[in-house]
Amino acid sequence: MHKSFFIKIALILPFIGLSQNLIINTTNRNTTTLNGTWHYIVDPYQTGYYNYRHQPYDQLPENNNAAFYNNYHAKNKMELVEYNFDTSPTLLVPGDWNSQKEKLFYYEGTIWYKKSFDYNLPNKKRLFLYFGAINYKAEVYLNGKKLGTHIGGFTPFNFEITSIVKPVGNYLVVKVDNTRHKDAVPTTNTDWWNYGGITRDVKLIEEPLTFIQDYNIQLKKNDKNSINGYVKLNKGSKSEKVIISIPELKIEKQLTTDKDGKVKFEIKSKKIKYWNPKNPKLYDVSIKTDYQTLKDQIGFRTIETKESNILLNGKSIFLRGISIHEENPMRGSRAYSTDDALVALNWAKELGCNYVRLAHYPHNEHMLKLADKIGMMVWEEIPVYWTIDFNNKNTLQNAENQLSEAITRDKNRASIIIWSMANETPPSKARNNFIKNLINLTKSIDSTRLISAALEKHNSNGVNIVDDEIGKYLDIVAFNQYTGWYGGSLEDAPNAKWNIKFNKPVVISEFGGGALQGLHGTAKERWTEEYQEYLYQQNIKMIEKIPNIRGMSPWILADFRSPKRVLPGIQDGWNRKGLISNGGVKKKAFFTLKDFYKKIKKQYN
Ligand code: GCB
Fold this sequence. Notes:
The chain contains 7 helices and 35 strands. By secondary structure, it is α/β, with parallel strands linked by helices. The radius of gyration is 25 Å and the shape is globular. The N and C termini lie far apart (66 Å).
């Protein structure tokens, strides 16, 4: 076949297939971590990837030692080799590169990572290399062989390395490129810093020849007494035995797979205790085959809407939320650990939240597991943000791939109640079709959760109008509004008039304003804690009167890094709309919101 055909296929491949191969629940498998120190080479001109005619080495017929993925070492002192991983400095994985080295503070481009490891793979076992996330584009090579490419900075992917791995002296080389592109997801323009690097855990997963790759175990839609779903074996065939057990519910169900190694099931039980934020009941679940037992902890709950109500286990709720970026503000870096997740969710708990909006991309899996455990409902979203290239088919494929990787990873988490498709995207025919495609894809993978998107409002003759056509297709009408910050008067806010075109639950997905912690003045002076406090007071009065209001996630829990925010002495590279500063100190508005949530909690109890 013609070479250009292969090149075309290689370009499409990152978007197809990887999510179908995704191994879920990697925490409870037989794994070896590759976290730790990795050598790195900063390569702004991509010298390790292209020859001097700008042809990519990995698409040329002959191997070339100059390609960095070969991890080549000069054989003698005469030989010319212009790179050396082993004498290059190191970075910690997981972790973004920007916060680890001062010189890389605003670096965007290519960095090569190298990790060496030994691995004795027993007979009749398979080995997979798993990345929790790499921002943004990853080219992965093991022992000089290309494993593949992955695009998208916030979702996991894996490659099988059974036939490549050796007992001693493996070298894993990853080219990471966080360059922003107009047609990428997200696009070039975002109000958050584009941290580069291998930002989440890296592990080797050892599996039997046939293994449990993926499963879905959740309550059946509209039926509180049925647990249903599927189990999918990798290299499974017809009539493999699969047993699902939930000892506490006295469930032990034996199943047999179809010819594709997959089996669907439905189990009835009248004894289920339902997961909710007050009592986040999780059941020990195990899935057994002849070769393996895989454990999970799963909560069961229903989530639906009925006219203006959001019903959790049949009961009307109010989403007392807060928006969160995946950062540890005290470190000024990407969050990457369970401890980081704990910091954020503990703050949210302290605020009185029962719900968080994880903005603006899928967060680390630690966060979702913790949310399950401590009882926090979650809105999860993908970085379809502002002006992405809605007319571009590749952009859609890219967004679809990120969405399906996120849902594949997280579909067993009871905490997730909403999949969000987009944030503040400008309505147009192309954009509407784009989002409709995402909605259809979501429903085809998971029909049990609610679908939303953060829309916008507009104003006509003093009336706030929400009439975005996409609202028709959403379960929850969510929109961002910045009364008293980007426009609109705070004095008049409580009397604002609203015209929301849909009889559905309404959630304010964002509101807020900036304050520098420790800066005090009158409620009229920008950037003071008093201004932010007054903004919250007035917005809350306004929001309480919005018809069908069922929740909110103000912007935002903590100050976060944004290169767009340059005002010296105030912003200094930080978006200051946090209720908590980057020093971890609560601002006055934190307590305004906390008081409101106390009141709302009583109303909805
Ligand atoms: C928004 C965006 C969010 C920004 C925020 C702001 O509407 O959704 O990403 O950071 O406004 O601070 O302006």
